[in-house]
Amino acid sequence: MQDVVFEANANGWVPSGSRTALSQHQEHLARLPAAGLGHGHKPSGGYVLASDRNDEKDGLCQAITPGVLKRRVTYRVAGWISVAAAEEEGNHQIGHPVRVSIRLGDGACVVDGGAVWAEPGRWAEIKGAFRLRESPRSAAVVHVHGAPAGVDVKVMDLRIIATDRKARFSYLKDKTDKVRKRDVVVKLGGAAGASVRVVQLDNGFPLGSCINGEVIQNPAFVDFFTNHLDWAVFENELKWYWTEAQRGQLNYGDADRLLDFCDRAGKPVRGHCIFWQWIKDIGGDRDQLMAVVQDRMRGLLGRYAGRFPHYDVNNEMLHGRFFRDRLGDDVAALMFREAARLDPGAALFVNDYNVECANDPNATPEKYIDLIRQLQRGGAQVGGIGLQGHVSNPVGEVICDALDKLAATDLPVWITELDVGEPDVALRADDLEVVLREAYAHPAVQGVVLWGFMQGHMWRQDAALVNADGTVNDAGQRFIELRREWTSNARGRLDSDGQFIFRGFHGTYVAQVTTPTGTKMLKAFTVEKGDAALVLDMDT
């Protein structure tokens, strides 16, 4: 049951902007969007049009009843947004960003309530989220704005909903059971009544963290990393500006030392990244830039071929076009093709931010899929989709919606740089649980990598799981508890048919059967994805 705390009244909207005019309309039935995310709200068809806008800040506002918004509650903004084409656009169906903000008090404090990429003739569903540090002392106002001057904005059925995380988690546990577990039959003939003990050694769903040359010297960091994490990624040491700070002077020593550390710890490493959107101190013409791009690929991938199972090829292409603007759009696919030739065993990823948050019109799942399809048409062997996961106030339904859309590509998805920013560590633990449960319950997701976990050694300082003194905080404890929850250990006895049945998470195990005469039998096995029960015959 969703708790709707605000539902816009068509008569309650007022214009923002000196010339903005508002009018009410009814959308044609055939043009109505599908029912809304999560809450299943069917669009009414009635919308308000804000026209004659002179500025991006112009739009429409409506007051929220005082007292309904509470501190520490995560709210979701729902509804539909569209735009009408500006006169100078003619018949071109171009889109525009439209934003929803929550203005508190006299408007000095503005909270982001989400954004969409709205196109003429189409309705885009708003899926924003926000949380207040303090309860408003006076009326709050919802404000829809953001499109360029002259673009008419349409708003339908805007609502603010208090999320119900407990209900969502309950649903996800059932979903997780279907996605991440399998029935196992331990079998031993003629041994009815024998005791069985099954211990899971590793989970088949990897969780990792970024590391750097400094943190691996910290005993508390190394202890948490080696005990609770499976994979690694280098924070900076593989990036071009690090390995070649000055043109022609290569430095792979730092990356080599980190790779040796991970080899000793038995942790696979993601290769981050071959290219980013910019590079310093390269002058000259197009041919010279192309030559250094080729040198970068040959130098990095030639040195480390077979060492990194993943590579982020050209990082954050939704938010930058450095190489494409200088070398042409085809260079992006060329990077993938050349990387595949130089290291054919590596899965080659796209990697970008905000796609899972529904707050960035430049980074929608649809735009990400379009980018992937363009790369594939250019011959790129795209092997995976990276969602960075730098999140605040996460909403499970919004994350799942993005994952569902990306899953249509049939490519594996990894959350590659997860950090959950929240100063209140108890809320941070809740937010972290939201993201991890959504990822673990979704069949398209194959792993999650944290962008660090220790206070004082992270890009975002309000995202730590481990305090600077090495103590594990509430968020870190929640992480450990989830790992424990996703581990299957079982005990029992063989039945009269010589079988012991349990349902276990995917991963590696060891089973021990002790017969009534005291004979012990051990067997290692792996539970992989499958619909049929896995039969473990202790006799073979």
TrEMBL record:
GO terms for biological process, alphabetical: polysaccharide catabolic process
Segments forming domain GH10: 190-482
Presence of the UniProt keyword Hydrolase in the record: yes
GO molecular function, one term: endo-1,4-beta-xylanase activity
Cross-referenced PROSITE patterns: GH10_2
InterPro entries: Galactose-bd-like_sf (IPR008979), GH (IPR017853), GH10 (IPR044846), GH10_dom (IPR001000)
Keywords: Carbohydrate metabolism, Hydrolase, Polysaccharide degradation
Coiled coil: none
Family, as annotated: Belongs to the glycosyl hydrolase 10 (cellulase F) family.
Name the UniProt record assigns to this protein: GH10 domain-containing protein
Organism listed in the record: Urochloa decumbens
